[in-house]
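COMPLEX REQUEST
Ligand: IPE
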Amino acid sequence: MRKIAHLPNHVAVVPDGNGRWAKQQGLPRLVGHLAGAKNMRLVVEYLNEYSIKHMTLYGFSTENWSRPEDEVEGLFHLLEKFIDQDVPEFHKRGIRLRHLGRLGELPPSLQQAMNRAVELTKNNTGMTLSLAFNYGGRAEILDAVHHLIADSISPQDIDEKLFNSYLYTAGLPDVDLLIRTGDELRLSNFLIWQTAYSEYYFTKVLWPDFGKREIEKALLSYSQRQRRFGGL
Ligand code: IPE
Ligand code: MG
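STATUS: Structure written out below.
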């Protein structure tokens, strides 16, 4: 494990490139997603070894529903499996699970698995692993606005702190480092409010190949940057 001077407190990840990874090997896309799910575990555990306090993973966006039905179902199935197989191990390591997004629109068995994982790990004090699943940044902001209005909050009481507390990410700090694999240079509706001052790290490496050395490179790149938050 490489020593790194300034580590981020909150790392968010857009794991992209599963489909291309599979295609390169002449395999079905779902095999790529399976390799991607396996890699998630590795990355979670490696960031946890670095004692990074918050990690947020973009697993399924509100726009991913437009993919073929069998791929969508495959992704749901994989997440359920990921939760059932990997969460007990995460629990042992003190990791706390959280869900970000519209849970109610997902298949009931997946909702239950997610709720069980959150419940099981709710008192853990290690890393918080947030799974953004059926998540959209604009949907999140709209949901927050709807709740503010439903709670009859007056305009003068709405500041950034209060608004934050109405987001799915309530209680989480802003993202310090956003990593996107798979050679796409965009945010794709992920944490659009929370990444306003994040550092971005883009790499051509496809998600299933984003291993320990790649993580170290991303952390090192972050640690060498100077953050000014609009100041001098
Ligand atoms: C990202 O891989 C995984 C999810 C969206 C769940 P893709 O499925 O987008 O892979 P590419 O971009 O087609 O290679
Ligand atoms: Mg993609």
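REMARKS: The CA atoms of residues 46 and 128 lie 14 Å apart. The longest helix spans residues 69-92.
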